[in-house]
Specification:
alpha/beta, 15 helices, 18 strands, about 35% helix
Length: about 425
């Protein structure tokens, strides 16, 4: 394990620790998508389910001292493609978690699924195992774009899986993407209409971005220009708002009461324990905040987890970093956050970022009063510019270098 200790310019002080969520990473998928930069690995042969479940439990037991006495408010099984696992394995994971840590009785428990793995009996068995929310990675209902994105499922499979998911779980998120290769406004309108025809309580629309270490980065497709991309996003927003969905976070839309509780905990700078290959954690103690990363390659992760040593890296979040990390998340929420949440979740007074807040207001990117702070309409459109104001000085790029802010940009983690 590589441990990076960073100098601290004053320690945070928490009166109460933030809510704690649990993220469980399943790293295998049917096929690596050309746009995906997540820690996912194409399945080759049989997945070592039983060994991986045992590794997850060893990982969780290793983490118990750092979360002792705390309750889990939500659980998210992400990947990769967690629906590649059998219902029996998912049941064993959830039973193992509940045997080791207290989970709230009404906890939201989400499983990510790929329509290419859809079987009605399998989905029903996931529900019986304790999954009460399904997040379905549709990406598009148009065969042209599914092909362009390298997805393993076809249009009819996406529709069948969406219909079954709604019938079985009720509480469902459909993941779609916009600004796809060759996409025009009419295409985006058709995808939004197709998604709305299932009346899911939650919809996520993500802007396709070209990330390093992906096939699309090496062989970039022709994407809509910035103006058309903005028009597509505005169109989707309008269509969903007209159907009664609230655009509550940068990429997330929900009917009132169906916001993703697990992800909202991220945006409000709550804590999360991540177990599994490559999983990330943020854990607060009474006088420090720690970030952790597990070993990424599945085989190496399993070997280390079996030795009760799953951590690849661990470091404390410094005073200089914590304001940026809070704002990176909180400013994605349309309603913003209460001003008091900054002290509650960082352990520092809001004056820590007063100069940055004033600059955001001066530029018209930020709005605040004595109750709330939020990105203005202009700030939501230029969110990267607003978030960049809070970057620690040592991480600010030269003026001629564009700053790209990367946050959790798919419904998981």
């Amino acid at each position: 394990m590589s441990v990076v200790l960073r100098p601290t310019l004053g320690a945070p002080q928490f009166e109460a620790l933030p809510p704690l969520a649990l993220y469980i990473h399943i790293p295998w998928c049917l096929k690596k998508c050309p746009y995906c930069d997540f820690n996912s690995h194409e399945r080759r042969g049989e997945i070592p389910e039983a060994r991986y479940v045992a590794g997850l439990m060893s990982d969780l037991e290793f983490a118990l001292p750092s979360i002792w006495g705390r309750r889990i408010v939500s659980v998210f099984l992400g990947g990769g493609t967690p629906s590649l696992f059998s219902p029996e394995a998912v049941d064993a994971i959830l039973a193992g978690v509940r045997a080791r840590v207290p989970v709230l009785p009404d906890a939201e428990i989400t499983l990510e699924a790929n329509p290419g793995t859809f079987e009605r009996t399998k989905f029903a068995a996931f529900k019986a195992a304790g999954i009460n929310r399904l997040s379905l990675g549709v990406q598009s209902f148009d065969a042209r774009f599914l092909d362009a994105l390298g997805r393993v499922h076809e249009e009819h499979e996406a529709r069948a899986a969406a219909l079954a998911a709604i019938e079985i779980f009720g509480n469902v998120n459909l993941d779609l993407m916009v600004a796809l290769p060759g996409q025009i406004l009419a295409d985006a309108r058709a995808d939004a209409a197709a998604a709305l025809s299932f009346a899911p309580p939650h919809l996520s629309f993500y802007h396709l971005t070209i990330e390093p270490n992906t096939l699309f980065h090496r062989h970039p497709p022709s994407l809509p220009d910035d103006e058309l991309s903005a028009d597509i996003e505005d169109l989707v927003d309008t269509e969903l708002a007209a159907a009664g969905y609230v655009h509550y976070e940068t990429s997330a839309h929900a009917r009132p009461g169906y916001e993703c509780r697990h992800n909202v905990n991220y945006w409000r700078f709550g804590d999360y324990l991540g177990i599994g290959a490559g999983a990330h954690s943020k854990i607060s103690f009474h006088n420090r905040v720690v970030r952790q990363v597990r070993y990424k390659k599945p085989q190496q992760y399993l070997e280390q987890a079996e030795l009760s040593a799953p951590l690849l890296e661990e470091h404390e979040v410094t005073r200089a970093e914590i304001g940026f990390e809070f704002m990176l998340n909180a400013l994605r929420l349309a309603e913003g956050v209460p001003v008091g949440l900054f002290r509650e979740r960082t352990g520092f007074p809001l004056t820590l970022v007063e100069k940055e807040l004033e600059e955001g207001e001066r530029r018209g990117l930020l709005e605040r009063d004595h109750v709330n702070l939020r990105a203005s309409p202009l700030g939501r459109r230029f969110l990267n510019d607003l978030q960049a104001l809070f970057l620690p000085r040592e991480r600010v790029a030269p003026r001629d270098v564009p700053v790209k802010i990367v946050a959790f940009d798919r419904e998981q983690r």
